[in-house]
């Protein structure tokens, strides 16, 4: 199992030396966005979701809840985040309470197929489908929970042009047994086959590479008290392998917007 971390908020507080409620927005951005690109990546998705007050988005694979909280703060909408890792759901709920957003953002421990709610105005997946073997069924289940005309935004890691697989461990897989990479073109076609019409499809690999370079410089010159790699099992190695795989063409990152 790739995601085995537990008691995440207590770990953050121990590393930071203070309660999570006292951490700045910038400090939290370094730990609650479990994907390349950080909050800037989510900013690239938000316009395509077309969300506003009175609407509700579904964040599938919500992790520590950073994107869900960012979307709620930026657009004024409500967000339901779902994840199959119980410790992540617990951490996301606690971080949301500390951010005073529990009235608009909540989290449920469930796969999307079993979620009882429906009729969402938008959905997103951010670095999620790499762990999903049956991608068409996954996105079909998401479509089933959206109203007609709802938007779907994705920011996903895909198989690159290099034939050899990336070095393990990776952020989404320790041993490769739960890594199911597909090419960007194949992923786009799969999402369309699951009940969506394409609005935009973009290769953001170069942008993510620049983000990794800037992140490395920041960590080298002014390392924070707590950063995401410190919260993951073998975190620094996993992040480094991801950056190397990106630079060598073993993986790509694609961003897309679709309409149900």
Which series of helices and strands comes N to C?
A: HHHEHEHEEHEHEHHE
Gross geometry: globular
The average pLDDT value, as a whole number, equals 92
Kindly report the name of the CATH homologous superfamily.
Answer: Vaccinia Virus protein VP39
Tell me the CATH architecture.
3-Layer(aba) Sandwich
| Structural class determined from secondary elements | alpha/beta
Number of helices: 9
Helix content: 25-40%
Poorly predicted parts: none
Domain unit count: 1
Keywords: Methyltransferase, Transferase
Organism: Actinacidiphila bryophytorum
GO molecular function: methyltransferase activity
Protein name: Methyltransferase domain-containing protein
Describe this structure in words.
With 260 residues, the protein is α/β, with parallel strands linked by helices. The protein has a single domain (8-259), classed as 3-Layer(aba) Sandwich (Rossmann fold). It is built from 9 helices and 7 strands; from the N terminus they run H-H-H-E-H-E-H-E-E-H-E-H-E-H-H-E. It has a 7-stranded mixed β-sheet, with helices on both faces. Helix 4 links the parallel strand 1 (56-60) and strand 2 (78-83). Helix 6 (135-144) crosses helix 7 (184-193). The longest helix is centred in the C-terminal third of the chain and has 17 residues, at 205-221. 45% of the residues are buried.
């Amino acid at each position: 199992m790739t995601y085995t971390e537990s008691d995440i908020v207590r770990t953050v507080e121990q590393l930071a030396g203070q309660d999570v409620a006292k951490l700045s927005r910038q400090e939290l951005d370094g730990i609650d966005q479990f994907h390349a690109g950080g909050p800037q990546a989510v900013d690239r998705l938000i316009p395509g979701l077309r969300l506003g007050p009175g609407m509700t988005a579904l964040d599938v694979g919500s992790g520590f809840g950073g994107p869900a909280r960012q979307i709620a703060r930026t657009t004024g909408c409500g967000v339901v985040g779902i994840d199959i890792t119980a410790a992540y759901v617990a951490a996301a709920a606690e971080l949301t309470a500390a951010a005073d957003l529990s009235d608009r953002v909540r989290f449920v421990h469930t796969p999307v197929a079993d979620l009882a709610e429906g009729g969402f105005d938008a959905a997103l997946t951010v670095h999620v489908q790499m762990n999903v073997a049956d991608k068409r069924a996954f996105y079909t289940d998401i479509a089933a929970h959206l109203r007609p005309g709802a938007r779907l935004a994705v920011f996903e890691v895909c198989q690159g042009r290099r034939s050899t697989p990336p070095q393990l461990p990776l952020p989404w897989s320790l041993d490769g047994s739960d890594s199911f990479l597909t090419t960007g073109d194949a992923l786009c076609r799969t999402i369309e086959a699951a009940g969506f019409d394409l609005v935009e499809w973009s290769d953001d690999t170069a942008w993510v590479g620049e983000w990794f370079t800037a992140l490395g410089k920041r960590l080298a010159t002014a390392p924070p008290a707590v950063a995401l790699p410190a919260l993951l099992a073998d975190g620094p190695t996993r992040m480094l392998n991801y950056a190397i795989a990106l630079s060598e063409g073993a993986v790509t990152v694609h961003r897309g917007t679709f309409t149900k």
